[in-house]
């Protein structure tokens, strides 16, 4: 999670040094916060920015000891579904020509209109990582159907489920992620 998209189509950030002998090293470009999601949507809306972004990502991966790249563009505007699919196809072609891989980290499919054309994306990427639903009740209610839908549209060997490192505290109808230490403190209080 070292990089983010910039408004001019470039990629900003710096790599974390990791010792990962024998493992795939694929940094994530995060475009899912409120600010960076707007940048992603602006890039997708402009053909020249899209092309520049593809080139910037390809250059990043080519010029570093990476096996590929992961994009967490999980807040794409639903009206940009076609542009996102075209962008992924162009980036996939560019990276594959350099023997590099492309991974996407996306929210699970829902019965609502989304910006993700799963069949198209599944044809072009090497991995699709599905983000979990934070609310534990909603997770158990919705994730089985979401995963079933994904594997209908995307080769199952390409699908990975992201496991959140956070616990979830639910008070009434409000859920919030909490870290391990806070979760253990709450568990200790409940036991007392």
Secondary structural class: alpha/beta
Query: Could you list the spans in which at least 5 consecutive residues all have pLDDT below 50?
Result: none
Distance between the termini: 38 Å
N-to-C SSE series?
Answer: EEEHHEHEHEHEEEH
Number of helices: 6
Taking Cα atoms only, what radius of gyration do you get, to the nearest Å?
18 Å
How is the largest sheet built, in terms of strand order? 3-4-5-6-7
The proportion of strand residues reads 15-25%
Walk me through what this model shows:
With 192 residues, this protein is an alpha/beta fold. It has six helices and nine strands, in the order βββααβαβαβαβββα. It has helices at 34-45, 47-62, 81-97, 118-124, 136-153, 180-191, and strands at 3-5, 11-13, 28-30, 68-72, 101-106, 127-130, 159-161, 167-171, 174-178. The strands form three sheets. It has a five-stranded parallel β-sheet. A two-stranded antiparallel sheet has the order 1-2. α1 (34-45) crosses α2 (47-62) and α2 packs parallel to α3 (81-97). The longest helix has 18 residues, at 136-153. The chain is globular, with a radius of gyration of 18 Å.
């Amino acid at each position: 999670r070292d990089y983010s998209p910039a408004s001019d189509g470039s990629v900003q950030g710096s790599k974390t040094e990791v010792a990962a002998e024998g493992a795939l090293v694929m940094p994530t470009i995060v475009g899912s916060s409120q600010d960076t999601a707007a940048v992603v949507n602006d890039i997708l809306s402009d053909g020249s920015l899209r092309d520049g972004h593809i080139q910037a990502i390809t250059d990043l991966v080519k010029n570093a000891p990476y096996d590929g790249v992961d994009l967490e563009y999980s807040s794409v505007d639903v009206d940009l579904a076609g542009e996102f699919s075209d962008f992924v196809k162009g980036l996939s072609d560019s990276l594959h020509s350099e023997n590099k891989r492309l991974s996407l980290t996306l929210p699970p499919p829902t019965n609502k209109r989304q910006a993700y054309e799963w069949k198209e994306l599944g044809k072009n990427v090497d991995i699709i990582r599905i983000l979990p639903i934070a609310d534990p009740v909603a997770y158990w209610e919705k994730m089985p159907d979401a995963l079933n839908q994904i594997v209908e549209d995307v080769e199952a060997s390409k699908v990975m489920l992201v496991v959140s490192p956070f616990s979830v505290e639910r008070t009434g109808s409000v859920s919030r992620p909490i870290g391990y230490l806070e979760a253990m403190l709450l568990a200790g209080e409940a036991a007392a």
